[in-house]
Fold these 3 entries.
Entry 1:
Amino acid sequence: MRLKRHESLMSNLPTVPVWHQGNSARTTYRVAPQNIERVICHRLKNDIEQYLIRWRSEDKSRPLLSWHSLDVLAECLAHVQVYLSKVTSRLHVHDGVSTSETTSRSVSRKRKSPGAEPGSLWWGQPLNKEKHGLDVVISAISSSASERSSTPSSGIESSDVFNCSFEKRAGYLVAKPVKDLTKLSLPTRQMKDEAKNTPMTQAEHAIRQRFLEMLKESPGICLENNVDSTTPSLNFQFIDGYVFNEGVQPLGDEFVVGCEKPCKPHMGGNCGCEYTAKCACLEFAAVDEDTLARKGGQEHEEYQRLKEENGGMQPMTTPGLNPPKRFPYKKGVAGVPNTLQPFYLEQRFPIYECNLKCNCGPICKSRLVQKGRQVWLTIFKTPDRGWGVRTNENLIRGEFIDVYLGEVLTNGEAQRREERARKSGKDKASYLYALDKFIGDDPGLDENTCHVVDGEYMGNVTRFMNHSCEPNCRQYTVSLNKNDIWVYNVAFFAYRDIAMGEELTFDYLDQDEQEEDEVLRMRQEEALDPNNNEKKSCNCGASKCRGYLWT
């Protein structure tokens, strides 16, 4: 959850825990992140990096500022990271070099559901793991980084504070305004010049270490950067399920309906549900039209009539009929994982899994996504597309990878967040997923009322997956409650065999595959359109690249 921001430093004392360094009797007083507005400068003092922070204060004309080392700012590294990113971006622009992640992302759109120097920086190591027992092992950082241990605390001197003084009260640092206000405009030119020549290696190391600690909460993921010395944002929180925002509430358990007898755990050679015609979880599943057509007869004729009445689309219900359907997954054997049936993989029908009220038991083959990710992945830095994700093991076509997680918002709140991003001048990358798969199934569900998943600040590893116009993964709708058309899982499956070390990608617009000649023609037309001059170029590198994101 995000930390609550206090409007006034003076009316809300910083809740800073006392921290003892080793066995030393010396105590370091930390700063609470909610009491900081931002970091505005940095310097090197006695070989220790220090950062000038601007405290939150009601009087904006007389800000309270002070210098602190990284151990005092240990809980505020996200603020330090934002400052570091801005400084790096300015230096890149000044040097005539294209900026990295801070400016590489582009316009916001809702997705449709379905070391000190650049070098080899590697965290994490391969695991000897069982498929259903992932663990995470974090190895040592690079030798140069591991030598930089936590920096000792430095005392606060009078030259380190501006417009305020500090009291150490019951283990807390408390900033208080002083009468003789400093008239300097901070940071001064001298401070800025010093900052230009001062590396931030200690901060980079501390930020990396903090992100590695975050990864421990999400087993089976490691981090690699062979491009530069950056780290994914510390403002991101790894979660293991949806976080429902105000105005969003999933249907309660009383609305969940599971399959009953004859479904039972040990049917079909211990595979669980066996009869598609009798499994209640498949009530709204897609009809196997090819099989129905081969059977022919009155049932096929009646189904065709219902389909015509539904505008040529498969009818949601088939009263009086019991057309053939298919279970979503193929049971794996001899260490091969369960995979998504081609019937669903190719045609993108909603997938209905068995649930907590089902009679089939936990080993049922129709339980896959609900068991979570079972593959080892790496978050890695790309040269031109920010962070990406690749697999550390071979994946087979139809294999489940992971779901997309985040805050579930009302459509109105999602639009407000996009608007705030535009007003602030940010090139906010789109982490918004519209849960719009079932639009049309209910009069109250449309593009303006469907919920939206925002994975920018809360989510999981899939948040770092990049776009490709010719992806190796696809996203699918997976429901654990057939009666809930508002909230469901967005799950990623391998669309083809994927080799170990290959980047995992998906199409942000979730478009159907096109012929290469047609894509080339469209790309040439897009390049000649002056309205596309401000659009973000697509760097996916695929032969079927459309040229721009969001086109």
Entry 2:
Amino acid sequence: MGTMIIPHFQIGYFLLASLAFLLVKLDTVAHHRSWAFANSSGGLQTEASSSNDQEFDTNK
């Protein structure tokens, strides 16, 4: 029984990591595809992205 616990923990950590990765990818895709939805839900991310775009423009 003791040896069976370790693989289960490894599988659980792998699933958690893959879920977090998918959530981040889905969040970025949704942010790029639907600006109206992001603006209606707060606009904090759009403000951060617009300030980053301005910084990139000044660096050029």
Entry 3:
Amino acid sequence: MISEHGLRDYHRAKLRAAERLGIHDDQALPRNDEIESALREHQRLFLGNSQIEALHARRLAAREAMRFLQRFEPRLVGAVLGGTADQHSAVCLHLFSDTPGEVEQFLSEHGIRCELRERRLRMDRARDLAIEVLLFIADGIAFDLSVLPRDSLR
């Protein structure tokens, strides 16, 4: 499901698989590291060079995007960083800005049209944060930019 459909939210994938299999015990579900290990093995066996090439293309695109977005102190996260990115994977970056709309305006000024969304991000055990997410495609590669407050920069 994760590899074939490009689903990268392990929690959501676990819930879908459990539902399909009729599993109701959360303790029976695999841990994220077990899922990632199985995904790597699947990619090695069934995707071979195509996964390696897709990962390489996304890492090059990520490097270019991080240079372009350097004023927002970008951090690469997700499958491209972890090495499991394939043709379905977006380049996921965390950007930092305290001014609402600043990143969207910056992209617009450079001719990049994006879709604006909101996502809830768990900051720690006690705190969730609604953040701005900007989605766009450049040179055939999807980008997912999450904009966080500067004080969350580690």
